[in-house]
Amino acid sequence: MIAMSSQARARRKAEKLQAKAANDLPRSMRPSPVVKVITIVVLVAALIYFLFPIYWAIVASTKNPSQMTGSNGLWFAVGIDQLPDAIATNYSKLLGWTRGQFWRWVLNSLIYSGVSAAVGTIVAVMAGYATAKFNFRGKNAAIGVIMGCMLMPAALLTIPQYSIFHAVHLTNTMLAVIIPCSVSPFGFFLGRVYAQSSVPNELLEAARIDGAGEARIFFTIVLRILAPAMVTIFLFLFVATWNNFLLPLMMLSSDSLKPVTLGLYGMVSLATFNDRGALMMGALLGVLPVIVLFLGLQRYWQAGLAAGAVKG
Amino acid sequence: MTATTQSAKAGGARRAAKPKRSNAAKRENRTGWAFMAPFGILFALVFILPIIWAVYSSFFRQVSEGGGAYGGGELVNQFVGFENFQYVLTSSNFWGGIGRVLIYTLIQVPIMIIAALALAMLIDSFVVKHITGFRLGYFLPYAIPGVVASIIWVYLYNGQISPIVKGLAALGINVDFFADNIVLASMANITTWTFTGYNMLIFLAALQAIPHELYEAARIDGANGFQIAMKIKLPNVRSAALLAMLLSIVGTIQLFNEPQIMQTADPGISKSYTPMMMAMNTSQGTLTPGGDGPASAIAIVMALIAGVLAMAYALVERKVNAE
């Protein structure tokens, strides 16, 4: 225990020294204490703004309707020892309100997001690789059209998409959500940038000389190199699908097909609904998978944002 | 790349190179399109076909036929020429909605971008050493779906339960976040809350890609921290900022989630509060004239307005940049 903590302390010290060296500034460039304090104050104030609603939602998710209006809005209405009971009460109310569908909705969201992100990632990476490494007729036109659609208001497409899916009797099926969500011009763009910068031509050459077919080269070599990029694209498609509201709202009518966001919207739009604490619990449980994914895959989405920023 | 393949396959025979090349080119053409195909097919289905459908259907309107005075007949598509567009362009509801999203864009987008830029610069400045916590904290709202974010904020605007409203009231400030002249700002706050951190990360990534030698050189030339920020950092995030602005403008034109959720708490928000809500309700038939035709016409006019705005912004930006 002591050894571990001293080790940790040593590591932290080394990190600190490293950071100091990176930021080593001459005296004249060092910020004055006043500037330092102001900076910290501004950053902390911003942090409070961004985190307060989430904190409030956590507190509110433990309250019943009368505590919601009557108790201190900044703190739990009951003591810490009674908290598990309060949570259990709201949880069972949540399941009651949704007629037991709540976890079905979360599962639906996982299916929609997981499948469209998986399909979307592989097709986007294939297309990105194709435009980065091959010359084919119409390539530049294809790139232009896809990039142009990055600026196309995506929601505008939803209405005609609904009409088309309706015409072929695909509305109110899972495919109605999965197919539109699995196409991402942004994913194509990221796939292209990554394939350009990280797949060496020499490697492809060598594989070709060894007699490997193009499909084999792609699936055994290129995909392995592009794996980090694919995690990034997967994550962004996953979140985009999870957050999409208009599309499932238009496409789906069965309760059992709803993603969790649509289910929560259905609850909040009920005139008779007043159990906001239970709803807050549903909201928190419904965003948990996305947050876990973001926390777990931090370095990938940061790399993805960096690519979007620098090469964009 | 192609040259080496060919010479390898041609076995060094120069004369054979020409027909070989066209064969290789053909093969490359085929391979390229084969890898392109899955995305291309889906893209056509999700982007191209709907656009064509929208344009086509915007010239038709559904009318009931043969049902007598009380309707009830069969619905048939009737070619109406530009009637749907005429309806959209003369609809005060539509222009009211466009006006709202334009005001919204003009206020919300600059506030968000400037705030994101300022936060990114502060975090990137030499002052703050432990940035991971701030970075994650600012970004967290982006991971919250817009629907959930809107529900949370609608509750935080609610006078009966919100500690914010109650706290302000205790200070003697009584605000009704749903009042006619404030509700748009309340909505803008939700968008700002959700996307500022995301944009900040993009700017931060661009800032951190600037080589530190530039700062050293500037320092030797006698520049102070503020000058470095203005003369080196800002120009380097310009392209990222331009893209973020464009995407935000296009995004706010299709404002939908926030007003749709706020409607559950504020009956003052109409079915055509924003053009996107109007398009959705028209397509679902809860506004008249309803159906595909008028809905497509709304969507097309909206896309054109968004395109014109984005282009105008890009042109102005370029001009300012050049001067």
From TrEMBL, chain A:
Keywords per UniProt: Cell membrane, Membrane, Transmembrane, Transmembrane helix, Transport
Domain ABC transmembrane type-1: 106-297
Transmembrane intervals: 37-58, 110-129, 141-162, 174-195, 216-242, 277-297
Localization: Cell membrane
Pfam families: BPD_transp_1
GO cellular component, one term: plasma membrane
GO biological process, one term: transmembrane transport
InterPro entries hit by this protein: MetI-like, MetI-like_sf
Superkingdom to which the source organism belongs: Bacteria
Membrane topology per record: Multi-pass membrane protein
Keyword field contains Transmembrane helix: yes
Family named by the database record: Belongs to the binding-protein-dependent transport system permease family.
Protein known as: ABC transporter permease
Organism of origin: Bifidobacterium eulemuris
From TrEMBL, chain B:
Limits of the ABC transmembrane type-1 domain: 98-313
Membrane topology classification: Multi-pass membrane protein
Stored Gene3D superfamilies: MetI-like
Single GO BP term: transmembrane transport
SUPFAM superfamilies found in the cross-reference section: MetI-like
Protein's cellular compartments: Cell membrane
Domain of life the protein comes from: Bacteria
Entry keywords, A to Z: Cell membrane, Membrane, Transmembrane, Transmembrane helix, Transport
Region of interest: Disordered: 1-25
Bias kind Basic residues: ranges: 15-24
GO CC terms in record: plasma membrane
Transmembrane region(s): 33-56, 101-124, 136-156, 190-210, 240-257, 295-316
Family the UniProt entry places it in: Belongs to the binding-protein-dependent transport system permease family.
Protein name stated in the entry: ABC transporter permease
Organism expressing this protein natively: Bifidobacterium eulemuris
